[in-house]
Amino acid sequence: MPKLAAELADINSQRLAQVGPSGIRAFDVKVSAIPGIIKLTIGEPDLNVPEHVKQAAIKSIEENDSHYAPQMGKPRLRQAISQYLKRTRQVDYDPATEVIVTCGATEAINVALRGILNEGDKVVIPTPTFALYFPVVTLAGATPIQIDTSKDNFLLTPEHLEKVLAQEGDRVKALILNYPSNPTGVQYPKELVQELAQVAKKHHLYIITDEIYSDLCYGVEHYSMATALPEQTIFISGLSKSHAMTGYRLGYLAGPAAIMKKLGKLHALMVTSITDNVQAAAIEAFEHGQNDPVEAAKIYQTRRDYILAQLKEAGLKTVYPQGAFYIFAQIPASYQGDDVAFANDLAYQAKVGVTPGSAFGKGGEGYVRLSYAASMDDIKEAMARIKQFL
Hints:
The chain is an alpha/beta fold. The protein has helices at about 15, 25-30, 50-60, 75-90, 105-115, 135-140, 160-170, 190-205, 225-230, 255-270, 275-290, 290-315, 340-350, 375-390; strands at about 40, 100-105, 120-125, 145-150, 170-180, 205-210, 235-240, 250-255, 325-330, 350-355, 355, 365-370. The strands form 3 sheets. The chain has a 7-stranded mixed sheet with strand order 2-8-7-6-5-3-4, sandwiched between helices.
């Protein structure tokens, strides 16, 4: 194996050196080596991709749909996304200039943040939240400003946002929202979204809204920030969660044409275009798969209710999730807030893998995340082990 030349050892990105690997993935890799462990760690649906969606991908391959696609995405797919957003978010995005098909929501997050940030900028991020936002902001040369929402029912309040903006000054350029939330499953009510939109409008902020779990809600209506403030919102979503298409890597961005033109340039430099058969599958999902997430949500809600009841019996306090497929549980008082120690003990002694809440930012300390995107058999056995451990 080649060894890097000593003269090159210090030639690398200093920004990259500032960020560590994903705490979620690192913990999952560590506990995956434990024999007999049941993992409730990764947010990946155990359901299969709907059959009609798979067949669309197969047909695309058989018909030799294997050439460079348009860089912003196939016109029919962008049209389908535009129609979906008009129906569900009441925002009329021009498919030709205001929608970009990306390599999963991960690329969409990178494109959105790298496309608007400059050296020295700041980005407000309510925590706990999806941990990818922190390193992406750092790699863009900006500073993530974490807001701990744990004392406000894991929701960012307008008052808290105003206070932070007053402290941080005019270098704050954006606010990131993720809801239904990973890791808590909480949903932002319409009135709160509208109040936050007014604060963002007053302070001239971009809002990056990641709503990838919005098709998986339980007993509540999803209200989008794009609906409340379309002129300042960059909307992110995809099909990984709603249609169990994590491996297809299909996401998208939507926003005002002026900023989307710039983001489209960055997207084209990063990936050229998205795989043809994946786009064919996505077209089918958007045009004929509206009921797929409805059926998936019924399955997830049954699992959610079972876990909530079991954890209540075990004496653990939980956040009540209204969407996504996670439960955020407070660890026993005996651990004095050390969620990593609790997750380690649960993994090595009870053989159940959960994710330490501190992996999701300051607001997650003292909690663990359990994913119920796992089979009911695994969930039942995991709950039995947790109850015995406690």
